[in-house]
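Typical record is below.
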Amino acid sequence: MTEFEQIERSILAASRPEEVFGVLKGPAASRLLEGTKVYRRLARIVHPDRAAGRSAAFTRLTAFWETAKDRIRRGIYGETTLFEVTIPARKVKGAVVPEVVYHADRLMVAGLAGWYEGHDQTRRVWLEIADTPADNEFSVVAAKAVELMAKEDPATVERGAIPKRIESVLVGGRRVNIYAAPFPDQRVYPLSEIMAAYPDELDPRDAVWMWKRCLGTIGFVHAQGFIHGGLVPSSILVDIQSHGATLIDWGSAAWKGELVKVLRPRYRALYPTEVTERTGASRSTDLYMLAMTVLVALGGDPITHALPKRVPDAMARLLRGCLLSAPSHRLDDAHDLHLEIDRKVLPLFGPRVFRPFHMPPKES
């Protein structure tokens, strides 16, 4: 394993800035100076120029450093809770709702916003926090999208495929969306972190169930007229114990035919031309991006679409059927594709049994 791969894995596996920058001693000025040295050293190692197309660690490192600086200035660097969001007691429909304090415990992923795992007095929660006040509009879009879909089919939200919003609040000018954690007893992993843990390639038997979980959700989303518009590795949270998956980062959501208004630069190679050239999105837009994400997870080439030999031909053909240049020529029905995987791919893996998935242990 190269130095880049070692540092990349440690950053993506970390949940708090303290796990990246270590113990910083002395007054705030000394802590900031020492932390800056650590940040710059790590940034040189994981900078995207060192590995084309692999910038997730650099993005996460930068997010951790911004959080670390804020915690140092507030004198709470080293404490367990990353930050708190307090919503005072208020009246809702004539009833008094007591004060609630949400604690952010772990950064899960840095996407259109930072996604944190946390808790209040009684339950586990997820917090989606806009990076800057200028990004609030994407958090508003995200909240509206999940609200509309929850009204159409509450069961899809209850089983964790789409996050269930509890409430939203402004903190320091930044919008915070608070969601109920759909898998409260398990740790979830962004697909980007899973891919970093398996840098060579995921086993096709594991990639296929992750693909199917996302297709099941996207089929429902498309039936409501929505396009996610940003199905990249950082927007898929995977519960490896129950084989569940939640799609997040709905700030790029659009109605069918609308423009996808935001593009994540580090994943530009995964976007189809209708996004990069700003023409209308369609159902095939989501299937393209999801197929590209699965292809890269399998060790495939995002430019040539070549796949390792261990990927069954039937699986490769279905992936490439989603990746044709012209949107009208691609596969565009998520439910049909799900059935095709069941019919043509799963039988190649033998009897259908639950296949445990494990993340490799962190290296010390």
Summary: The two ends are 14 Å apart (CA to CA). The chain has a mean pLDDT of 89. The chain has three domains: 3-73, 83-180, 189-349. Residues 3-73 form a domain with the Helix Hairpins fold (CATH 1.10.287).
